Amino acid sequence: MKNISKFLIIILLFLMLSTSCTSLLITYVRFDNRSASKTVKAIWDGVSMGDLAPGEKTEYREINPGTHTLQWKNALNNKVLTTLAWPNIVQGSQSTFPYVDP
Q: Which CATH architecture has domain 27-99?
């Protein structure tokens, strides 16, 4: 009986550690348009994340940690609205990047 109890405790600890540790490894970002009037798009690592109407946010997207590039453009004419940024994303984090009118 003692051996079965130890075995069950070990399995329980393993399950608890494996599920919580994997959630710490996943990294997420999302984009938030805080402009009152512009429809914008986030360009993340050279790829458009889609058009965002004023007040709209994307869902969180899973990414790799590390340094990335981010630039905001006007969705109507593709004009650059911000200078290029290089956010460094930490493993296991959730980050929101807002666009705010200057």
A: Sandwich (2.60)
